[in-house]
From TrEMBL:
Protein name in the entry: ABC transporter ATP-binding protein
Transmembrane segments: none
Lineage, uppermost ranks: Bacteria, Pseudomonadati, Pseudomonadota, Alphaproteobacteria, Rhodospirillales
PANTHER family the UniProt entry points to: IMPORT ATP-BINDING PROTEIN (PTHR24220), LIPOPROTEIN-RELEASING SYSTEM ATP-BINDING PROTEIN LOLD (PTHR24220:SF689)
Gene3D superfamilies for the chain: P-loop containing nucleotide triphosphate hydrolases
SUPFAM superfamilies noted in UniProt: P-loop containing nucleoside triphosphate hydrolases
Entry similarity comment: Belongs to the ABC transporter superfamily.
MF terms in GO: ATP binding
Species name: Dongia soli
Matching InterPro entries: AAA+_ATPase, ABC_transporter-like_ATP-bd, ABC_transpr_LolD-like, P-loop_NTPase
Domain ABC transporter positions: 27-264
């Protein structure tokens, strides 16, 4: 039993009764305030209650600097909120995990375990390690989780148009579009419960951006993964079935402050 699972069993003994009648969720988070300070300026993002349904893609829509990445950092367990009323995570076949409790207790080992096992991340620039081949980059998260499934990875590579010959090459030899498809494969390699993508099409031309968006939206739910994508281009996510959450920022009441809010 993992350390996180042990905490889950102890801290969530009442969760079964509370969530028995709820639709299948990936997470629920409520009463969030997350603040950053830099150079005398202060930025604060707030959000009411968000219930994220399993396998329903969600797009965080807003201009640069509106707070999309801040929310992804909170969901990705790499930023400690200033205020948090509730934060529950629902693995597909295990007890719910009270992330708010882990954060309150500063349980870094438990949070690290959650990130490793259940979260996938696709950064804006791909984030591939230059000293590893394409194949090694893709397999990295699966190896770290002891979930290396070659048949699944072969299927994933085929669907993402990543031929076997490409697996021996290095990131510097790839086009931008190829790097983003490799980044998506790596994020999905260990079959995470939740995939967080931060502006994955920002550096792509319109045609390639549409192709990468289509792959991200189509393939993630197909393999049991729920994607949350930060984007400044709402047009890419206009299809039915995509939940759009608008993030808006405005000048705060105090000098050198910005207040942002997620519209649920």
């Amino acid at each position: 039993m993992s350390e996180t699972q042990g905490i889950s069993d102890r801290s969530m003994s009442r969760a079964g009764d509370a969530t028995a009648d709820m639709p299948q969720l990936v997470l629920t988070i409520a009463g969030l305030t997350a603040c950053r300070s830099h150079g005398g300026a202060r930025f604060c993002l707030s959000m009411g209650r968000l219930d994220l349904a399993s396998l329903q893609p969600a797009a965080l829509v807003g201009p640069s600097g509106s707070g999309k990445s801040t929310l992804l950092d909170v969901l990705g367990l790499v930023m400690t909120p200033t205020r948090l009323a509730a934060f529950m995570f629902f693995p597909s076949s295990e007890q719910p995990v009270d992330l708010a409790k882990l954060i309150e207790k500063r349980h870094e080992a438990g949070l690290t375990d959650m990130r490793r096992r259940y979260l996938g991340y696709m950064p804006q620039t791909g984030g591939l390690l230059p000293f590893l081949s394409v194949g090694e980059n893709i397999r990295m998260s699966a190896r770290l989780n002891d979930r290396l499934d070659e048949a699944y990875l072969d299927q994933l590579a085929q669907l993402l148009d990543l031929p076997a010959a490409l697996m021996r090459r290095f990131p510097k030899d790839l086009s931008i579009g190829q790097r983003q498809r490799v980044s998506l494969a790596r994020a999905m390699a260990h079959r995470p419960r939740l995939l967080l993508a931060d502006e994955p099409t920002a550096s792509l031309d319109a045609v390639t951006a549409g192709a990468v968006t289509g792959l991200l939206l189509d393939l993630s739910p197909r393999f049991g993964i729920t994607p949350v994508i930060a984007t400044h281009d709402e047009r890419l996510f206009g299809r039915d079935g995509v939940r759009r959450l608008h993030v808006e920022a405005r000048a705060g009441a105090e000098p050198n402050t910005v207040d942002a809010k997620v519209q649920i």
